[in-house]
Specification:
heterodimer, A: 3-stranded antiparallel beta sheet, globular, B: about 625 residues, alpha+beta, Beta-lactamase, 4 domains, 26 strands
């Protein structure tokens, strides 16, 4: 196995989009930060720290042989599950925005579900390599890993964090799809999924309001339609070229917490359609590079791992963007690289470090 | 082979990711390009706050451009509570300037609203107070322009003009009727604010207020002022229950002046009762017209060729028997043998009963209706009455007889003056009106214009001429003598009507009236005056109402520039009646000489000395014998 060159395009794209994210977090958040903490740089300082640590870690991880994770896959996932259980205990885990998802360390917060996202991808990649022959069988190959995934989903739903749970389940299904599980199975899963969604709505009717609000946000402009309307009021007036950097009006308390889930709205408002094209291009650049790395990897575990990481990133980005532009109901998912959130950025950059390392191994 | 399968599936996934990204980019493009206008509009209205700027209300002018309702600019206090940082300090400062309690002010400055008007303490501020507030330069405290209605002539034309409320909204009269035209639309200073109401440092947009439409009336201010003055004089002289007057151009139906007492001051409307404000008597009041109504009977008889005024004679014995009723003449003992012209001059009731009998009830009532009685004239004013006529089935000989001289019908003043206009203008009934035109304030473009509206032709030109001639002789020879103006051919008719209360005539309580016009050969103005229950005077139309009408007509001669006539029918002097004589020139003469020359007048002096330096009336004016001539003396 010969050493390949460091994937510079992917690395630079990651740096570019993260730095752009930092700038936009500042622009989107300084009003709120000034209002809440009397420090307009509050959020960007936090995020900047995580970014620096994340970049160092990414470079460091890109030099660690990814095959090491295969060896420790069980331990890594075990630790993640332990943390997921611990975070549910009041006093240990803290509640933010209605979910007990955080380990609070001062003003910093760490979400174990973010680590679990990566841990489960590593575990599943190893599982697929190990049980290559069994994957044709639903009973012996698919059900055990799906069962594990759904258990973890269950744990996350106890927080509750529907967005992260959905991302984890969909990522595992994506890896299974690539891993050769028959189409018939996915058709069945689709039906189960629909039934599941109906079931979840039946349990918590507020989800139905969210769905209705996405169809016609003006039906309940101050309730369930509020966020999407505020998002559209940012995107629409942005027009083709935007209002210019720093000139967003919606960030002036109209769009709640504009630096997190709805940062893309502020980007659209300040940089217009042009900005949207630049951001989506950067994402596609990272995604295509990632797929290429997965494609070119000669190691089956590395292939699954790279695909899983990139697929998760793509899925989360698409989920967030679809919410922001009003294509699907509000789910509460952040936009990778761009939304404010330290542990999320940290894990994303670490994941990218793994992908960068896989790219070195080549065919 | 196994890798190949993985790669195929990876390509499927990548393709789907691509599709989703295209979908997202497409949706953004749709939002930013196709929904741009709509969302930008919605968002702007979410972001922008308006500081309203009040528009001027349309002005109201008389026919010659005299401003009857104007605007003065004032400032009002507007607060934006979210921009007020130090509420305590702001409230305290404003409270001391506006002279209200701090607690009161705290309510305003901490109100949960985007824009708070301090009402009413902060409205219509004087310049000194506005200056004081401006000097404080407090954040969130704004002064905006407001326009306040101003009536330069106060009570003049008050019922017709009406008045406006604190928000400049029309509440009565023309102000109410034409509110949608007179009201302008608000302008604004638009600025962007954040969701908490604080002002953003972005450009302000100034939207100009649109002033209201101006209104020009048919009113002639000089005649209006004359009428107002005369009604005021009548009120102080006779202390009547009510008084009213209208002046109309008989050739068009344009109202030249209209007023009544009691009236009100539109700037202080809250000091008056609803009745005082809303009852525009000239169009609202309905009462028995009395003898002025005889003009209608006269016109009908002439049009139907039922009488020859000069040749036919009638003997009035003082009363006439109609079925079981004996109808008396107003003059005890009657007028004796007279021509029908003299019947008109003397306003002889039995004479008119005979005319009524000749006409017959169907024809008489037909004409009454054709002259516009019994229905609204359609004048463009609020609150018009329609009057009451006998139901034709119930009209017996007695009802016919009384109707002929103006009893038993109930009419409005506007109906009467409109009908008489038709009788003397050549026979055409016009729809009366007061709003001449509505004009754009800046370009003066006509938005709406009223032109004379012919309702119908009632009598012939010939008949109308005879009516004019007969009415002229009422003034020169008959009961209307007190309205005579030398050289201007005044025509007219007196009226004295008993008031009805609870179905019975009241004793010693009359509405006395006079309908006068000039010049009789080609009438340019008709004036109707009615005084309800004049006190301290013999209640006859000729004694109370005719002199008032005469004074208004005198002013109208100047106002309209009416030329003196030659060949007017000379005034005939009745036995015992005072003569109407020219005042000789005594200025410059000694007191003794002057006294001799002024033998037939009363003389009053002012000043001391032997020489007359000034006289009033001046030489050549005509006054009645025995009236006063004032002389100013010098050494």
């Amino acid at each position: 196995m010969k050493e390949k060159k460091f994937n510079l395009l992917l690395f630079l794209s990651i740096l570019a989009i993260s730095i752009f994210g930092l700038i936009m977090i500042y622009s989107a958040s300084y009003i709120w930060a000034e209002y809440k903490f009397h420090d307009p740089f509050k959020f960007v300082k936090n995020q900047g720290l995580f970014f620096l640590i994340g970049v160092v870690l990414m470079i460091f991880i890109s030099r660690i042989d990814f095959r090491l994770y295969r060896k420790h896959a069980n331990k890594i996932l075990g630790l993640c599950i332990l943390l997921l259980i611990l975070v549910l205990i009041p006093g240990v885990g803290t509640v933010r925005n209605g979910s007990r998802s955080w380990f609070g360390i001062g003003s910093f917060g760490i979400q174990p579900s973010e680590f679990t996202k990566l841990g489960l991808i590593i575990f599943t990649s190893k599982y697929l390599c190990k049980n290559e022959k069994d994957m044709k069988s639903v009973k012996r190959g698919v059900l055990p890993i799906l069962g594990l995934t759904l258990s973890i989903f269950g744990l996350i739903m106890l927080q509750p964090d529907f967005g992260t749970g959905t991302i984890i389940v969909m990522t595992i299904i994506g890896i299974l799809f690539v891993g050769g599980v028959s189409f018939k199975f996915f058709f069945k899963i689709g039906i189960v999924g629909v039934i599941g969604i109906v079931g979840l709505i039946a349990i918590a009717p507020y989800r139905l309001a969210r769905i209705l609000s996405f169809l016609d946000p003006w039906k309940d402009p101050l309730g369930s339609g509020f966020q999407i309307i505020q998002s559209l009021y940012a995107i629409g007036p942005g027009g083709l070229l935007g209002l210019g950097f720093g000139n967003s009006i919606q960030k002036h308390f109209y769009l709640p917490e504009p630096q997190t889930d709805f940062i893309f709205s502020i980007i659209s408002e300040e940089f217009g359609f042009l900005g949207v094209l630049i951001v989506t291009s950067l994402f596609l650049c990272i995604i295509i590079s990632g797929f290429k790395i997965a494609h070119e990897s000669s190691d089956l575990f590395g292939k699954y791992l790279a695909f899983g990481i990139i697929f998760q990133l793509s899925f989360q980005a698409i989920l967030n963007l679809c919410v922001v532009v009003g294509l699907i109901p509000v789910t509460g998912v952040t936009l990778p690289f761009l939304s404010y959130g330290g542990s999320s950025l940290l894990i994303t950059l670490c994941s990218m470090g793994i992908v960068l390392n896989i790219s070195r191994s080549g065919r | 082979m196994f890798f190949k399968a993985i790669h195929t599936r990876m390509k499927i996934v990548l393709l789907m990711i691509f599709l989703f990204f295209i979908l997202i980019i497409g949706k953004v493009f749709y939002i930013q390009v196709f929904q741009y206008k709509k969302l930008n509009k919605y968002a702007s209205s979410l972001w922008s706050r308006n500081l309203p700027i009040e528009a001027n209300r349309g002005k109201i002018f008389d026919r010659n451009g005299v401003v009857l309702a104007d605007n003065i600019t004032t400032t009002s206090l507007v607060l934006i509570p979210n921009q007020i940082k130090d509420k305590e300090k702001t409230a305290e400062a404003l409270a001391s300037i506006l002279n209200v309690t701090k607690e009161e002010m705290m309510k305003h400055v901490s109100k949960k609203t985007s824009i708070e008007r301090v009402h009413p303490e902060g409205r219509r501020l004087s310049y000194e107070i506005a200056d004081k507030i401006n000097d404080l330069k407090l954040p969130g405290v704004y002064l905006v322009k407001e326009s306040k209605r101003e009536y330069p002539y106060d009570t003049v034309l008050s019922h017709t003009l009406g008045f406006v409320g604190i928000d400049n909204q029309g509440l009565s009269g023309l102000e109410l009727m034409y509110d949608q035209y007179l009201t302008g639309s608000y302008g604004a200073i638009k600025y962007f604010s954040d969701a908490k109401g604080a002002r953003l440092k972005l450009n302000e947009v100034y939207e100009k207020p649109q002033d209201g439409i101006n209104m020009t009336l048919t009113i002639n201010y000089e005649i209006q002022a004359s009428l107002e003055r005369e009604l005021d004089n009548a009120v102080s002289k006779y202390n009547p229950d009510q008084a009213l007057g209208i002046a109309m151009d008989p050739k068009t139906g344009e109202i030249l002046a209209i007023s009544s007492r009691p009236n009100f001051s539109p700037s202080h409307y809250s000091d008056y009762t609803i009745e005082e404000i809303n009852r525009n008597l000239p169009i609202w009041a309905t009462y028995e017209p009395g003898s002025t109504f005889k003009i209608i009977t006269l016109a009908t008889a002439l049009e139907e060729n039922l009488v020859d005024l000069e040749k036919e004679k009638f003997t009035d014995t003082g009363s006439i028997q109609v079925e079981n009723a004996r109808i008396k003449c107003w003059k005890h003992g009657g007028h004796g043998n007279q021509t029908f012209l003299e019947v008109v001059e003397n306003s002889c009731n039995p004479g008119f009963v005979v005319l009524g009998q000749r006409i017959g009830k169907e024809t008489l009532f037909d004409y009454i209706k054709k002259f516009g009685f019994g229905q609204k004239t359609g004048v463009d004013l609020n609150g018009e009455g329609s009057g009451i006529l006998f139901n034709l089935d119930k009209v017996g000989p007695v009802e016919l007889a009384t109707t002929a001289f103006g009893q038993g019908v109930s009419v409005t003043p506007i109906q009467q003056i409109t009908a008489v206009s038709a009788a003397i203008n050549g026979g055409t009934l016009f729809k009366p009106y007061i709003v001449k035109s509505l004009n754009e304030p800046e370009t003066n473009t006509i938005v709406k214009e009223t032109t004379p509206t012919v309702v119908r032709k009632v009598i012939s030109e010939d008949t109308s001429e005879k009516v004019r001639m007969a009415l002229e002789s009422v003034v020169s020879n008959g009961t209307g003598g007190n309205a005579f103006i030398e050289g201007y051919r005044v025509g007219g008719k007196t009226g004295t009507a008993q008031k009805v209360k609870d179905g019975r005539y009241m004793v010693g309580n009359y509405i006395v009236s006079f309908m006068g016009f000039l010049p009789a050969d080609d009438p340019e103005i008709v004036v109707y005056i009615a005084i309800d229950n004049a006190k301290g005077v013999t209640q006859y139309g000729g004694t109370v109402a005719a002199p008032i009408a005469r004074n208004v007509l005198l002013d109208a001669i100047n106002a309209l520039g009416i030329e003196k006539r030659t060949g007017a029918s000379e005034k005939e002097y009745k036995y015992g009646e005072k003569k109407y004589v020219e005042v000789p020139n005594v200025t410059g003469l000694s007191v003794k000489e002057a006294m001799t020359k002024l033998g037939s007048f009363k003389v009053e002096f002012s000043g001391t000395g032997e020489l007359v330096s000034y006289q009033s009336p001046t030489a050549g004016e005509k006054i009645y014998e025995g009236e006063t001539v004032r002389l100013m003396l010098t050494e």
